[in-house]
TrEMBL record, chain A:
GO terms for molecular function: manganese ion binding; superoxide dismutase activity. The keyword Mitochondrion applies. It comes from Lojkania enalia. Keywords: Manganese, Metal-binding, Mitochondrion, Oxidoreductase, Transit peptide. Mn(2+) binds at H30, H78, D168, H172. This is Superoxide dismutase. It comes from the Eukaryota.
Automatic annotation (TrEMBL), chain B:
Residues 128-229 form the Manganese/iron superoxide dismutase C-terminal domain. Mn(2+) binds at H62, H110, D196, H200. It comes from Lojkania enalia. The keyword Metal-binding applies. The lineage of its organism: Eukaryota, Fungi, Dikarya, Ascomycota, Pezizomycotina. It catalyses: 2 superoxide + 2 H(+) = H2O2 + O2. Keywords: Antioxidant, Manganese, Metal-binding, Oxidoreductase. Pfam families: Sod_Fe_C (PF02777), Sod_Fe_N (PF00081). SUPFAM superfamilies: Fe,Mn superoxide dismutase (SOD), C-terminal domain, Fe,Mn superoxide dismutase (SOD), N-terminal domain. Its EC number is 1.15.1.1. Belongs to the iron/manganese superoxide dismutase family. This is Superoxide dismutase.
Length: 217, 231
């Protein structure tokens, strides 16, 4: 029985490309160890799931759901995260690369600084491991922006929700460089946010935001 | 409120409150309240004393920064809670509860954790004896088998949290339980022994190899402290 397997996506930049804001040691471990582990565990859980489906074993299928949710969430979140960052010297790292998004941001929060402050407050309010996301919420013809936090590896996959950019607030995302000073990490990460990707996700569909996640058979 | 919050006697012993101080701001309408502030407990060993299991750098940041932040935040939010009570602002009181749980829990958990660790030359890693050893053998067959199950529980935590050996206050039996984030062991269960599975507890030394941390920490577990908590 062939089961779909997911693979670690390549980073669209070098491991040291986000320095000095996120150092190379963090990026290497985060990508090759942490993200790889989510991918491995997801593939293992999906294989067990396929076997349980084959065996019509419903209790096992249900028991596997949390492992699938956690590890798939980890894979989804990190895949989106790598792409919503870029080297600070790139033009993509400037909010001017996202004119439509910034307009909507201003209409929603008044100005960009107020938005950033609200986003940072949300990030620092996370109790434990989790993520902060700027999302587009589509309800019928209406669409609005919202800041949301998710715990552990819960992904943003709700109906009508499109993730625009996310910030990883697990300690492994910053601890080697910032230790307990997470407020500094939260302040510095704005230097490497990829606004071009953010704009693409804002104007694009939900399916497009997740396009890099297709499994290989 | 301190006396109702700190239910177990083990915890009251562990958590040292300084002499009650008047709050910086007087309460409304001339009323004032007096309460003890939580303080960071001193460690009963040096920062480097748990090496090589836990590095001195980790211990110093963990105690002096992380635990201190829980203490400071707990005191701040407790003060806000007192003010909300004075004003009979129920919404504010409810909004503060998760913050009290998180920061108060962080204070409780770390205080118990420092005590249930010890350097090897102060008994760290010495196997339990007496009633606790008996309970572990009865429930898990052997200390090794217990440690293996405890490590499996630690490894299974999705995100930040703790694993605890707890005693059921209703039946007296012991069991392994995991708690998310800084949720403290309160209510039906009594904390006997806790291990911190937050990444800040091991990352500078072990990075993503958390299984190595879970294995190494048993070398510095203070079973004597755990025995004293069992009733």
């Amino acid at each position: 029985m062939s089961v779909q397997t997911y693979q670690l996506p390549k980073l669209p930049y070098d491991y040291d490309a986000l320095e000095p804001y996120i150092n190379k040691d963090i990026m290497v471990l985060h990508h090759t160890k942490h993200h790889q582990t989510y991918v491995n565990n997801l593939n293992a859980a999906l294989k067990s799931q396929a076997e349980a489906v084959q065996a019509a074993d419903i209790p096992t299928q249900v028991a596997l759901q949390q492992a699938i949710r956690f590890n798939a969430g980890g894979h989804i979140n990190h895949s989106l995260f790598w792409r919503n960052m870029c080297p600070a010297k790139s033009d993509d790292a400037k909010p001017s690369a996202a004119p439509k998004l910034v307009d909507k941001m201003k209409a929603t929060w008044g100005d960009e600084a107020t938005f950033r402050k609200a986003f940072n407050t949300a990030l620092l309010g996370i109790q434990g491991s989790g993520w902060g996301w700027l999302i587009k919420v589509e309800t019928g013809k209406e669409e609005r922006l919202a800041i949301t936090t998710t715990k552990d590896q819960e992904p943003v996959v709700g109906k009508g929700e499109v993730p625009i950019f996310g910030v990883d607030m697990w300690e492994h995302a910053y601890y080697l460089q910032y230790q307990n000073e997470k407020a500094k990490y939260v302040e510095q990460i704005w230097n490497v946010i990829n606004w071009k990707t953010a704009e693409e996700r804002f104007v694009g569909s939900r399916a497009e935001a997740f396009k890099d996640l297709k499994a290989t058979l | 409120m301190t006396s109702t919050f700190l239910r177990s006697s083990a915890l009251r012993t562990a958590l040292r409150a300084s002499a009650p101080k008047a709050p910086a701001r007087a309460g409304l309408a001339g009323t004032s309240f007096v309460r003890g502030k939580a303080t960071l407990p001193g460690l009963p060993y040096d920062y480097g004393a748990l090496e090589p299991s836990i590095s001195g750098q980790i211990m110093e940041l963990h105690h002096n920064k992380h635990h201190q932040t829980y203490v400071t935040s707990y005191n701040n939010f407790s003060e806000q809670l007192e003010e909300a009570k004075q004003k009979q602002d129920i919404q504010a009181q409810i909004a503060l509860q998760p913050l009290i749980n998180f920061h108060g829990g962080g204070h409780i958990n770390h205080t118990l954790f420092w005590e249930n660790l010890a350097p090897k030359n102060q008994g760290g890693g010495e196997p339990p004896s007496g009633k606790l050893a008996q309970a572990i053998n009865d429930s898990y067959g052997s200390l090794e088998s217990f440690q293996q199950k405890f490590n499996t529980a630690l490894a299974g935590i999705q995100g930040s949290g703790w694993a605890w050996l707890v005693q059921d206050t209703q039946t007296g039996s012991i069991q392994i339980k995991t708690y998310a984030n800084q949720d403290p062991v309160v209510g039906q269960f009594r904390p006997i022994l806790g291990i911190d599975a937050w990444e800040h507890a091991y990352y500078l030394q072990y990075q993503n190899r958390k299984a190595e941390y879970f294995k190494a920490i048993w070398e510095v577990i203070n079973w004597k402290a755990a025995e004293k908590r069992l009733q």
